[in-house]
Structure formats: structure tokens, C-alpha cells
Amino acid sequence: MAYVDGFIVPVPKANLEAYKEMARVGAEVWMEHGALSYVECIGDDIPYGEVTSFPRAVQASGDETVIFSWITYENRERRDEICAKVMADPRLAGDEWKQVFDGKRMIYGGFQAFLTR
């Protein structure tokens, strides 16, 4: 079964175009190194919940939107190989990407798929 890395990221609306460019570069890098798919989504219907929600999870403020993204791989072992190559890729090493969003509020994790259709 496939392996999935999932991400939820708060992005200032003023930085949305810079984030999109970073995502385009990221997609190119991950796919070149062997990812099966790379998806980035901008929050459209993400109400601020009373108890929990996407905006609450990343402490998004009124001038931020939430990005939901995922990358798929053949399996965990392949994901680990690909991520090592991605982290060493100079296209993602620039300091300019660090200013696009607050990485301390990003939520991410790896998931073992058990059902796909």
C-alpha cells in the first residue's frame, strides 16, 4: 500500500503567491526524486470551529489561510529514500523559503494507507 506525508500549513494571504512558487518548486523536486504524486490545496471552506478546525490546529490568524497538502510514495522505505534526496536538493535550501510561512505552526506526519480507490 502507498505511504502518504500530510501537511497543514498557515500561510499569510500576502505570501500566497510566494507559497505557490515554493510549492511548484517542491512538486518538481519531489516528483523528480520519485514521489508518486504531490498535491497542494488552498483552504476554501474552512470555518473556525468552536473546539477544533483546520485554522485552530495551526493557530491561523485572520490574515492567513490554511494550506492542506500531501505527497504519496510507494511505501515508507521509498519515502525515506526520496526525502533524504529532497532535503539535500539545493533548490529547496534557500533562506527565502523560510520567510513564506511560520514552520513552527505546520502540522505534518507520515501515514500508512489502508484503503485507496
Overview features:
single chain, 117 residues, alpha+beta, Alpha-Beta Plaits, four-stranded antiparallel β-sheet, 3 helices, globular
**Low-pLDDT stretches:** none
The CATH architecture comes to 2-Layer Sandwich
Protein structure class = alpha+beta
- What is the top-level CATH class? Alpha Beta
Number of strands: 4
* Oligomerization: single chain
Radius of gyration: 15 Å
Give a verbal description of the structure.
Pfam families: DUF1428. It comes from Pseudorhizobium endolithicum. This protein is an alpha+beta fold and 117 residues long. The protein has a single domain, classed as Alpha-Beta Plaits (2-Layer Sandwich). Helices cover 29% and strands 27% of the residues. It contains three helices and four strands; from the N terminus they run βαβαβαβ. It has a four-stranded antiparallel sheet with strand order 2-3-1-4. The relative contact order is 0.32. The mean pLDDT is 94.
Topology of this structure?
Layout: E1 3-12, H1 16-32, E2 37-42, H2 54-57, E3 64-73, H3 76-88, E4 107-112
Antiparallel strand pairs: 1-3, 1-4, 2-3
Concise description?
The chain is α+β, with helices and mostly antiparallel strands and 117 residues long. Helix content is 29%, strand content 27%.
